[in-house]
Amino acid sequence: MANPGEGSSDQRYLTFRSEERLYALPAGQVAEVIRITPLARVPQAPKSLLGLANLRGVVMPVASVRALLGRGETASTSTARLIVLDGAAPVAVAVDEVAALVTVPESEIRREDAELATLAGEELRGVFQRGGEIAKILDLDALLTRAFPQTKAKRTSRALAAKVDDAHAAIDERRWLLTLDVANQEYGLDLQAVREIVPLPDHLTHLPGTDEVVLGVMPYRDTLLPLLSLRILLGLPPASLTRNKVVVARVGDTSVGLVADGTRSLIAIDPSLVEKAPPILSARAGGETQIAEIYRASKARLISILVPERLFREDVMQKLTRTDRATDSPTVRAGERGTRELRFLAFKLNEDEFALPIEAVDEVARVPEQITRLPRTPKFLEGVVNLRGVVLPVVDQRRRFDMPAAENTAGRRLVVVRTEQHRAGLIVDSVTEVLRCSAEAIKAAPDLTGEAAGLVRSVINLEEFGRMLLLLDPSELLSRAERGLLDSFNKNASLKETGRPHR
Length: 503
Hints:
Elements: E1 10-18, E2 21-26, E3 30-35, E4 49-55, E5 58-64, H1 65-68, E6 81-85, E7 91-95, E8 97-105, H2 114-117, E9 124-130, E10 133-138, H3 140-147, H4 157-169, E11 175-182, E12 185-190, E13 194-199, E14 214-220, E15 223-229, H5 230-233, E16 245-251, E17 254-260, E18 262-269, E19 274-276, E20 291-298, E21 301-306, H6 314-326, E22 341-349, E23 352-357, E24 361-366, E25 371-372, E26 381-387, E27 390-396, H7 397-400, E28 413-418, E29 423-428, E30 430-438, E31 442-444, E32 456-462, E33 467-472, H8 480-487, E34 501-502
Parallel strand pairs: 2-10, 5-7, 12-21, 15-17, 23-33, 27-29
Antiparallel strand pairs: 1-2, 1-8, 3-6, 4-5, 6-7, 9-10, 11-12, 11-18, 13-16, 14-15, 16-17, 18-24, 19-20, 20-21, 22-23, 22-30, 24-28, 25-34, 26-27, 28-29, 31-32, 32-33
């Protein structure tokens, strides 16, 4: 196809509308037109960037034509479309409506009138008349360059792969525990045995003739997952299934769902504080329930560590195996994918999903009821808390990302993050799971993310599940000014010297 202005007498244009005005793009710049897709919004990105979309496995930035033209954004309508531009890297622009694909003789294109027809915020290459209207030919490259100055050094897939390898090559050998709430008692599972945490579905498929410990089955990825009550396994009385969590755990070569009352925290434990469970505990309930170890998290906090393989009697394991065969569902086997798995902590802010490398997370805990304010500090710095004798600065991540305050704070969690020089607690809406994925799922964040490029290390693109998580760079979560504030923070200060409690 000939490019506009290179000897072709007729030019083809795609016309579209923005705020009732008619614009046009040379057809050679357009790869395809698609409906508006779910977007992963990038915090603190230029307002012209609506977010990132998944285009058949490729991470694609989406810009708003309204914002590029300096106009206010409105809610998307059924006529809104994404115009995917044809270029070396996929980029899409959102428009109010796509009008038509038209052929225009070169003689009817008035390039000399572009300057006269230009309104504030526009960059035009010319105009032509169609159906009684004036169509303005947008210089979209100029608009994008103005809104998103390109960085001098562009990332490549090879550089990204090296960065991911560097980040995970020496994952520390800390032992991690996921702690669970069962009948107001705290139990722990080694993180290596946990695949992920999912909500308990509203409706379960019950299996006749199974032990009472088997609550039923639920759809899980491409299989059916047997659900087992931790209360029954631990010899505790059953309770109503409300707001429960399902911990998907590996038991030998089988995946099972352990139903707990809730999850409490994710902690890296000190091996010197782990003790073997007293032998008397191993003999209860005929050996079905066995507490392997006890972790002394504090004087008032003892965590009983469970090993999934030791939770079940042999006959229960046989029933689980028969359940797998009866449903003709493949079980998920450890190492089945054949590629090295990377681990991330996934969390939500304002319904958007983010992730942090697991090696940057010290622990996940409930947000303390009392946070002590510090005078003359940024609004997003909630204050400090005493976390097991250590004064920890706390950042409200919603405020840090200029998001509205949360209406429901019941599920908020404190994610304790550490870098080479700093340690801080980040308040997030909820922690969804410890995500395991292959290195192939990590994609480069497009250069079109503007100033947020440093914050968003890359993107975890789980195309098969329709999910996209922004992988944050822990060292960039705080700006230089905020890092300077933490540098000057007296870590040995007592809570009494920092001001009155903030409720």
